[in-house]
Amino acid sequence: MLTYYDTTALAETRVIATLMQDKDFARRMAAGMEAAYYKGQKQEVPVFLAPGEDTATVMMSLFEEKVAINLAAFYALECGTSYFVQKNHTTPSNVLTSILNDSLPEADKRIFERFANATWKAGQAFRDLNRIERENFIPFNLLSEEEKEKDWNQIKWAASLVLPKIKGLK
Q: What angle, 0 to 180 degrees and rounded to 10, lies between the N-to-C axes of helices 106-127 and 145-167?
């Protein structure tokens, strides 16, 4: 049986999911975030989009696009590792080793997966704003275990590449 907390949290999470897939909300959010950035820098806030910029295209090579869209797990690994190094007073190599030998506590694994999912989401609009309307562009708590496992596999791959570089320092 679901508690009040469970049903309320689920209902509120579904509202967030709807907002995440709303292009107009994304535009308003992005404009506000950009303004907040400039205000935080004590700079004049520029116009979010100048006339004609809403249809301008930025070109990049296929190589640049493939690299950019496939680095989310590496950035997630960096965020999670940095967090756990500070929280647990440990070293990056210890965190990476625990990822690779599957000794990371489940709750800690979920934090890495959340970072991976968030960094993936951040890049989707760069590919095509319509991607925010996809079925898997939803809050982490609503993702299937299969989607979460995809993120975990990428985090482990990233850890397998980073750990030998760190160990080379010793």
A: 100
